[in-house]
Design brief:
This protein has 302 residues and is of the alpha/beta class. It has 13 helices and eleven strands. The chain has helices at residues 13-22, 42-55, 78-81, 104-114, 127-135, 139-142, 169-173, 175-182, 193-196, 205-209, 215-231, 237-246, 289-300; strands spanning 3-9, 28-35, 62-64, 118-122, 143-149, 188-191, 203-204, 233-234, 251-260, 269-271, 280-287. The strands form two sheets. It has a nine-stranded mixed beta sheet, with helices on both faces. Strands 7-8 form a two-stranded antiparallel ribbon. Strand 9 (251-260) and strand 10 form a beta hairpin. Helix 1 packs antiparallel against helix 11. The mean pLDDT is 97. Bound molecules: alpha-D-ribofuranose and calcium ion. Calcium ion (CA) is lined by residues 9-10, 12, 14-15, 39, 123-124, 238.
């Protein structure tokens, strides 16, 4: 049975890698990609999604979404993803046929209405998801499941921040949106730094260099080149979250309520099981690293 998934992303090197991985699995059908301001401006995250769609000849529409967080000022991650958002590779974009004129949050809602059992994977700030939930209060119930790359829950020793010492980027960029999302969905799974910041899941330069030459591996080598020069390995935050759609059994999960801070400790995510009106989310605490890495590397050779 094909699993239908809608992607909400801020490409972003690892977002792009997640699109390349997911599109290699015939058991998944990507229904659409909405983009959001995050790693870089929404104009660039949109162009980057289109570049990957074009390069891999995917039959997928791209829907430009929110250009700024709900309340805070946008502060992008050029230092990690480059000014263009794909490692300053300036990949070519030859045509814009994948670009829809439909706004991202609207496209999400309509896709959920048109596709029963739709999954949604969010690997950027949660602004589009929050807007969709405000526009259509029943939106959370329309989804089969929501998978979010985001948060640092201190459930493992890796669950500490990567923007400040307690805040993960996607949540920190738009904490008000994360607050809305973490209290609106009954079927949300959060894959945070507790799992993705564990070196056992990182991809080494050797592993990437040894990939046989395909469109995917060629693009991957280009977009991670500067990243690996700076950080030594490729940290596949978004591909790991995407892998939950492929092999959820390979993850260890705990159920907790999530508290998101928006003030002095902006973007901090803690687990809280004592509040009255708490809505439990599923939070990943581990993943089978070999299973993920084999699947990721194999998909790049597809
Ligand atoms: O903290 C890592 C997350 O923030 C990833 O999704 C990365 O692409 C950035 O959006
Ligand atoms: Ca991302």
């Amino acid at each position: 049975m094909v699993k239908r998934v809608f992607l909400d992303m801020d490409p972003g090197i690892d977002d792009a890698a997640a699109i390349m991985m997911l599109s290699a699995f015939s058991e998944l059908e990507i229904i659409g990609i909405s983009t959001v301001s995050g790693n870089v401006e929404v104009e660039k995250t949109t162009a980057n999604a289109m570049k990957i769609v074009e390069a891999l000849e995917l039959n997928v529409e791209v829907f430009k979404g929110a250009s700024r967080p709900l309340a805070k000022r946008a502060r992008h991650a050029y230092i990690v993803h480059g000014k263009d958002g794909l490692g300053d590779t300036n990949l070519e974009l030859h045509n814009t046929k994948s670009l829809s004129n439909k706004y991202g949050p609207i496209a999400m809602i309509e896709s959920a209405k048109e596709n029963k059992d739709l999954w949604l994977l969010a690997t950027g700030p949660l602004t589009n998801l929050a807007i969709a939930t405000i526009l259509e209060p029943d939106f959370p119930k329309m989804l089969k499941g929501l998978v979010v790359m985001g948060g640092a829950f201190n459930l493992t020793k890796y669950g500490v921040g990567n923007v400040t010492r307690f805040a993960e980027f996607n949540i920190w960029f738009d904490p008000e949106a994360a607050k809305i999302v973490s209290t609106s969905f009954d079927n949300a799974t959060f894959i945070g730094l507790d799992v993705t910041a564990n070196p056992k899941v990182w991809i080494s330069k050797n592993e990437i260099d040894n990939l046989k030459e395909t469109k995917r591996s060629s693009i991957l080598r280009k977009i991670v080149k500067n990243y690996i020069k700076s950080y030594g390995s490729f940290v596949p935050h978004d591909p790991i979250a995407a892998y939950y759609l492929i092999n959820p059994e390979s993850f260890q999960i705990e159920d907790h309520c999530i508290k998101v801070k928006t003030g002095r400790f902006r973007g901090m995510t803690t687990v809280d099981n004592y509040s009255e009106n708490c809505k439990k989310s599923r939070i990943a605490t581990d993943v089978d690293a070999d299973s993920f890495k084999n699947a990721f590397l194999k998909s790049m050779e597809f």
